[in-house]
Amino acid sequence: MADLLRPSQVGVAGRRRTIIRLTPGAHGRLKNLSNGTAKEGSDAPDSSRPMHFKQENSYRMTPQDSEKFQPGKVKKAMFDVLEERLQGVTYDSRTCQDLAKELAAEIQKRVKEFRWHRYRVVCQVTLGQQTQQGLQVASRCVWDHMLDNQASITYDNKSVFAVAQCYGVYFE
């Protein structure tokens, strides 16, 4: 019973939240501390929701040089994704809309693998048919020029052009 919260502590957690703690010796049973019910299953809480851990404040307001967003690395990752996914692709208005979303998600995934802590990554991909037209893609951002950065790259083949943009915004 030592692992249960007092009723006053359960109220602090809020009415809509559920407190789940793995009780010692439960052998695969999860105990819901808000109403005392138990769930059979794995030793971990619901795997569909990410687990959040409290971290102690580091009191750092700027990243170290090795933790800064590096546009050179991002451009290489973006080029690799665009080249392997768009090589030999012909333009189709129905499929290119979904393809642009998939490319943006893939680029974002690759950039997050660099593990620049406290950076939020935003990716955007514009796809279009290659008909020798002129096109300008522009963006405006309000940010700290010392910490935030961006990378953009263009890729084209005989049928499709792509403009990929990736923004790294430092989150204090």
Automatic annotation (TrEMBL):
GO terms for molecular function: dynein intermediate chain binding. InterPro entries: Tctex-1-like (IPR005334), Tctex-1-like_sf (IPR038586). GO terms for biological process: microtubule-based movement. It comes from the Eukaryota. One of its GO terms (cellular component) is cytoplasm. PANTHER family: T-COMPLEX-ASSOCIATED-TESTIS-EXPRESSED 1/ DYNEIN LIGHT CHAIN, TCTEX1 DOMAIN-CONTAINING PROTEIN 2. Belongs to the dynein light chain Tctex-type family. This is Uncharacterized protein.
